[in-house]
Amino acid sequence: MDNKEMVVREEQTSLGSIRIADEVVRVIAGLAATEVPGVAGMSGGVVGGIVEMLGKKNLSKGVKVEVGEKEAAVDLFVIVDYGTRIPDVALRIQENVKKAIESMTGLSVVEVNVNVQGVAFSQEGKEEEHRVR
């Protein structure tokens, strides 16, 4: 990991400095996106899949952030549940991610771009309907 991504925001207070790492903003965005009903998961590509195969939970999978001193822009790559209205889910993702990052870091979120990469079908096996009870 290069040093460019290490520190997103550094603030001096009367008691010392506060540093927020780039990875922290990615994790916040990823968790806020997956909280939204209708989101099946994040799409992390081949690298994210390999990391999860190794047993590590990658909380920033499918999240790219660009952070300045006071503002942040976020790109999310998500998989939605089949049957959900995608524009509604995407709007809720944008609102939830913006709110989470702004409240937790103090950064102003200027963009939340949602890229829907796939549709997931329910994994739960539906009980076979019996014709007679």
What's a concise summary of this model?
32% of the residues lie in helices and 35% in strands.
Structure description:
Pfam families: Asp23. This is Asp23/Gls24 family envelope stress response protein. It comes from Desulfofundulus salinus. Belongs to the asp23 family. α3 (86-105) links the parallel β5 (71-81) and β6 (108-120). Helix content is 32%, strand content 35%. The chain has three helices and six strands; from the N terminus they run ββαβαββαβ. It has a single domain (10-118), classed as Alpha-Beta Plaits. The N and C termini lie far apart (61 Å). The protein has helices spanning 22-34, 45-53, 86-105; strands spanning 7-13, 16-21, 39-42, 63-67, 71-81, 108-120. α1 packs antiparallel against α3. With 133 residues, the protein is α+β, with helices and mostly antiparallel strands. The strands form two sheets. Strands 3, 4, 5 and 6 form a four-stranded mixed sheet that branches.
Order of helices and strands: EEHEHEEHE
Low-confidence stretches: none
- What CATH architecture would you give? 2-Layer Sandwich
Give the N-terminus to C-terminus distance in angstroms. Answer: 61 Å
Which value, in Å, is the CA radius of gyration? 18 Å
User: How many beta-strand segments?
Assistant: 6
Task: Identify the CATH homologous superfamily.
Answer: Cation efflux protein, cytoplasmic domain
CATH class: Alpha Beta
Compute the average pLDDT.
Answer: 83
CATH fold topology: Alpha-Beta Plaits
Mind summarizing the main beta sheet? 4 strands, mixed
Counting structural domains, the number is: 1
Give the overall shape. Answer: elongated
- State the secondary-structure class: alpha+beta
Organism: Desulfofundulus salinus
Family: Belongs to the asp23 family.
Protein name: Asp23/Gls24 family envelope stress response protein
InterPro entries: Asp23
